[in-house]
Amino acid sequence: MLVKNLVILALLAVAVPLSSGCGGRVSTGPTDARPIAVGPEEHQRTIDALRPPKRERPLIAVLADNAGTETTDFLVPYGVLVASEVADVVAVAPESGPIELMPALRVAPQQTLESFDEQHPTGADYVVVPALHRTDVPILHDWIRSQAEGGATIVAICSGALVLAEAGLLEGRAATTHWFDIDSLERSHPTLRRVDDRRYVADRGIATTTGVTASVPISLAIIEAIAGKQRAAAVAERLGAPANWTATHDSDAFRLDGRSITLAIRNLLAFWAHEDIGVRVQTGVDEIALAFTADAYSRTYRSRAFAVAEASDPIVTRRGLTLLPDRVADETDFDFSVRLSEEAPPVESLDLALAGIEHRYGEGVAAFVALQLEYDDR
Fold first, then answer.
1. Which of 144, 225, 271, 277 supports an S-S bond with 305, CB 3.0-4.6 Å?
2. Residue ending a domain, choose from 251, 281, 299
């Protein structure tokens, strides 16, 4: 959904002077003002708001729409929460068929909404809602509202907040979302209280986050709410999460400017230079590392990543998801291949991917990818 929006924006920008920006809250870079850091009391209030509402060992449903679900928003919370071993985590979707992830990869759900409800009539403790290609699907709205009414804490990752807004769950609440959508969300839902400079916000059973990479810190916050600060810190260290991925965030650092628009147009229109990237996968592949790598390489407007296996059979990932390979290794040639690091912690795969993108396409493209992912370190 975000990529589609950026493409449309880039094409429309051809008709206007790039130096004038593109309307809305657009600037050419960060301001001099620094955000107020999250203090201990605010942090504790947020963690308290995320406490498991029902079970001692919580049940977490990570929701997807088969027709289109953001890659990192879906795979990373699933992977981080399963890795923590403090909750039971289930990937759910309306249908039993493949989940098309955006901008890359395909996976199978572990349960349908119907089978989940049959097996868990009292509902989940948490429902994670990624950015979805469609924000107006009644069956998803009904299911999310039903879970909220049953006491589940609903956690929207990135532009998953748009789904919650369509379902009527953000009215009168504090919320945030991806920098590209926050203005329109605020305009279309005037009772919503917009919160800037925070990666995640929790308000009366509803949590929302900023862009794609916020999937890691919100997952760690949920782990802390369930099992304490030491467990969350241990998981963060094991997975390689940066220490600066706290709730503090500089919202003004993320804006679409003339340089980004120019780069998007140039890369998009240079179709003869577009490349297919093969990411080698096998049984036990780390879904967190795979998500960050495939997502980043598929946002350059120059390349798209594909999961490449030795055979067409489904692959079980490290934490139990079923990955559906895009291509078989001996059937297709790629412009180049990427192998996931076996030594680096999985979250560090994002930095490795950005470094690879910079080496192949230049620093500006790597920065543009980081902008889409709302990633501070670039």
1. 277
2. 251
